[in-house]
Amino acid sequence: MKHKLVFPGDQLSTSEELLPGDGTFEEDGIIRASRIGTYVINEKHRTAEVKPATSTPVILSKGDIVIGRVAMAKEKMIIVEVKHVAGKSRSISSDTDATIHVKEIAQGFIKEASSEYKAEDYIRAKVIQVKPSVQLETKDRGLGAIKALCSKCRHALVKKSHGLECENCGNKEYRRIADDYGALDLEKL
Ligand SMILES: [Zn+2]
Description:
The chain has 189 residues and is an all-beta fold. The chain folds into two domains: 4-51, CATH 2.40.50.100; 65-188, CATH 2.40.50.140. Helices cover 0% and strands 44% of the residues. The chain is built from no helices and 16 strands. It starts with a strand and ends in a 16-residue tail after the last strand. Zinc ion binds at residues 150, 152-153, 155, 166, 168-169, 171.
């Protein structure tokens, strides 16, 4: 099967098909990922597992495209835990905190960074500075939120023609999204 990058909360299988293994949990008969990684089926034990990316340290460089999780959304900046570096096929060893200044979010003027991204969103961003601190930007079309959760019920928001919508509770929300929002797989990293 195709190896697929999954995020915490993603549905992997059901408890009728497989048993919950490493990196997963079961809830109401559904097996979900409990961490970011690659979804694999352990045929021998009939378990669903999520393999974390290797712990080999990856050094960030200017120009790298990274995937991170928003830790905090403030008025003037977004704080991101960098999880993945494109092309390296692995996570970075320990969480690396990075920031996106409000003026680096989009080409046009953005008043409040926190209106564009929210805590727990997964975003794709480009590294524009490494030292003394890691700084990112999301101005290109391919950059921005790639997965976001409903702020009311925490289900994944789905991209519709009018924007993002929660299929569970009907809540509509705005994010600055990457053009492939919701479609990420490991081959694209
Ligand atoms: Zn919802």
